[in-house]
Fold this protein.
Amino acid sequence: MSEGPHRPPPSRDMDTPAEIAEMVRRFYQDVAQDDLLGPVFNVVACVDWPAHLPKLSAFWCRALLGQAGYVGNPFRAHAEVHARAPFTSAHFERWLELFHDTVELGWVGPNAQRALDLAENVAQVHHRQLVGTALPPVAADEGGEGPCLLDLVEDHRDR
C-alpha cells in the first residue's frame, strides 16, 4: 500500500483512546474492503461495524493503555467464524499485512510498535489455535520482552 496524499507522514503515537479509535477505524475500513478478508467479516461473520468498532477500540485501549472497559471473548468469536468458513494462513497473513500498513502509515513511537507486536501475537495465537500450526512471523524481533496479548486472547477460551 503506498502512502497517498490523504495520509500525512506519521508523527504521532497511539497514546490516547482517540488515536487508537482512529487506527481501528482506518484498519477495519481496509479490512472490510479487502478482497480476501472482506467476505469473511461482511458475509460470514456479518459484522455490524458501527457496533463492533467501539468494542475493537476498547480491546486495543486495554492492550496499549491498560484501560478497563473491554469485555469479550475473541477466541470464541473467531472459532465460530472458523467453523462456518475455515481460516487459512493467507487470512492471517493478509490481516497482519493490512495492520502493519495502517499503523506504519499513521503512527510512530512506542505504542505504535507495541500495537504491531501485539497484532503479531494475536495472529500467532489464533492461527495456532484455529489452523493448528504456527504462523511464520512477519518480522523477527528476537530480543524483545514485549507485551503479550495472551491474557486477552487465551484467558477467555473456555468461557
The chain has one domain: 17-139+146-154. The helical segments are 17-33, 37-44, 49-65, 74-84, 89-106, 110-130, 150-154. Residues 110-130 form the longest helix (21 residues).
